[in-house]
Every structure is written in structure tokens, then in C-alpha cells.
Amino acid sequence: MLDLFGKAILDFQTNNAPSAIITETTISETDEMDVAYLFRSFNEMPKIEKKALQLARGKVLDVGCGAGSHSLYLQEKGLEVTAIDISPSAIKACELRGVKNAKVQNVLDLENDKFDTILLLMNGTGIFGTLAETSKYLQKLKSLLSPNGQILIDSSDIIYMFDEDENGSKWVPTDSYYGELIFTISYKNKTEKPFPWLYLDYNTLKNAAHDAGLQIELVQEGEHFDYLARLY
């Protein structure tokens, strides 16, 4: 892993000539992402993220914390937050920003700890990679919950990105779930090895949650086919 996403975050944090992250997926053209967006304040966050942060309580695990904006907000509210990401550069940036407990960690390898709130935001289902891997991740997250703990996760139903035929049916792949994408990230003329990234519609997440022995509720829907769910 070249850790380009993390490098972009660290470049922004240290004023090291940051530039845009270029993303491309199997169903979309190249797009530019302004790294500054990852450093947004609470007031600049979408309403789904705000809602998740308002619902967070107790001991918190921020999975895939990125630049640490969610962790910082909760820390300032007095919560005990552990921020994890697989990107060493992103974690370095989190530490420079003042996140007290940030570590390079894959959530699947986390052991012997329990949390009251587990946050997976900015398409939190993305790290599952594929629908087939979802159950493994949900079981892991469930094992990290304290008795009355909650998982707050967001995603989007990307069915809107597919074309319709004359009957109004969508042209979606027949050999895989339509929310399974392959992402490619480029930054400063380098390109990361493509990786799977999963968008889950709410009903599919609900079925997976029930299979994992978790209750689920739809907390809020966003402006653009996105939603926040609470699993417990």
C-alpha cells in the first residue's frame, strides 16, 4: 500500500504542498476530492454525520478515522475516543491535530476491548469491501460492543447511478451486488492499487445485521440516497 490517501491528509496537515485526491470507480469517471473536506468542523459536516456524533456516548471507537475530525469533536465533548485507521500517515496527522489515542490498526485485528459506541462514517460500509465479507466485519464489530453498545454506520443506496431500461428497471450487474465497486486513488502522479469498496442499501444492511444477531434501526436519511443506521 502506497498510503496515498493518508499522505494527502498528512500533506494538508503539515502544509506540504497538498493537492487534490483523484478517485475513480468501476461505475464513475475520475473525480477530484479536496483534502480540506476531511478537515471539516462539526458545522460543516452533513446532517447524517452530525446526528451520529450527537448519538455517540461512552467509550468510542472511530473506525477508519481518516483525518480525525469526528474523533476530535467527540474528544472535545469529553468522550474517551480511540481512533483507528490502516493508514500510518493519516494517524500521524490525527496525532498532530491533537487526537489523544490514535493508532494504526485494522479493526479485524482489534482484541480484548469493548466500546459503547463504534463509529463508521463517510460510507462506513466501505471497509467491508464486498457483500460476502460483510458478515465477518459485523461479527467482529459485535464482539467489540459493551453490553448496551451501539454501532453507528452510514452508507448510500447507489442504485440511482445505474441506467434504466424502458420499463424503469435498472441495468445492474447480474454476477455481483450492485453496491460493490472497485476504487482507484491517485495523488501527486502516483496511483494506489485498486481496492474493493462497498455501498450497502439499507435493506441489505438490515438483512446482514439480523444474520449477525444485531438489531438495527434507520436513524436518518440524507440528501442523496444516503442514510445513518444504528445497530445494537
Radius of gyration: 17 Å
What is the makeup of the main sheet? 7 strands, mixed
Proportion of residues in β-strands: 25-35%
- Percent range of helical residues: 25-40%
Q: How many helix segments?
A: 6
Unreliable stretches covering 5 or more consecutive residues? none
- Tertiary shape: globular
Assign the structural class, choosing from mainly alpha, mainly beta, alpha/beta, alpha+beta, or little secondary structure: alpha/beta
Topology pattern, helix = H, strand = E: HEEHEHEHEEHEEEEHEE
Mean pLDDT: 96
Strand order of the largest sheet: 5-4-3-6-7-12-11
What is the CA–CA distance across the termini? Answer: 33 Å
Got a strand count?
A: 12
Structure characterization notes:
- The chain is an alpha/beta fold and 232 residues long.
- It is 26% helix and 30% strand.
- The strands form two sheets. Strands 5-4-3-6-7-12-11 form a seven-stranded mixed beta sheet, with helices on both faces. Strands 1, 2, 8, 9 and 10 form a five-stranded antiparallel beta sheet that branches.
- Helix 5 (131-143) links the parallel strand 6 (115-120) and strand 7 (145-156).
- Helix 1 (4-13) runs parallel beside helix 4 (88-97).
- The chain is globular.
- The model has no long low-confidence stretch (mean pLDDT 96).
